[in-house]
Write a structure and sequence with these properties.
single chain, mainly alpha, about 85% helix, about 0% strand
Amino acid sequence: MVSKKTFCIWFFGGLAAFAITIWFHLPLAIEAVPEGMAEHQRAPDAPTVNAIHAAWQSAGLYGQARLAMISDLIFIGIYGVGCVLGGLYYLRSESGLLKALGWIALLCGAVFLITDYGETIAQFIQLQANAGDDGLANIASSLRPTKMATWIGAFLSLIAALLIERFFRKSA
């Protein structure tokens, strides 16, 4: 049984970790890589990844990129688990709407964990090797749209569930 407190700690902890991760990503947006880590995530091939790495290296940001990706790996786990726990919590609800939102959060959270870890691990391997790889770049860039959609789906479903639950509790 998942308690609301447990789910909220993980979910809101994940959002806090997301804010920290964004903070680590900000310095990576430089003139040569204006969208920072997002460009690395979308890089479709080895030459693009290598150009991004070279730009970060010449700007003295290679260590920052490692730190940003490590923070991303931590965030993914906390937020993804929070979404799955939130989904499990709302699956127990007597309300059909909250139960449906629970299913959305559970499925989106699970798919988010798989796709964002896949994307970020593919990126991190290339960063650690300081060498782009066509296969890994393709994996990362292909997973990004699904990762983004499931992040949003899990977030919106859980925020909606929390608001609906609060509204119904006050009106009862």
